[in-house]
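Reply to dn_fold:

You asked what the input looked like. This is it:
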Amino acid sequence: MLAQTFVYNGNSNFTNDIICTVEDGKVYDGNSNFRLDIIVNIKDSKIYKGNFTFIKDIIANIRDGKVYRGNSFFQGDILFNIQDNVIYNGNSISSFDIIATIEDGKVYKGRSNFRGDILFNFDGELSLEEFVAVWFVVHQ
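and this is what came back:
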């Protein structure tokens, strides 16, 4: 059995502030791990709605740190990319296009590292694909 990773709102670590739970390639609503509470799931570097794995249910797919819209691999469909724990808009790696920064399980808005700018935090390990799935859940 794989460990659960809890994702909390802001800098909180209170049970009431759990946004989602990640376990075994699935992201569940809140503190749940019930099948009916699956918000998104991950298979083969693709993120799907709910517990589905149909092409029409692909939200995004990931290749080389780049996150593409749906099942596309066109450069114009790159939503964001993650390099060295920094999330950039589109295919950019410019400091002007930084969306968020990941540090010690905390995700900060933009280039900030101030406590008040923490968008969400997580208490365990997340693969790149799991992190992207959580990003979509937090920003839906």
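The chain is about 10% helix and 45% strand.
Hope that clears it up.
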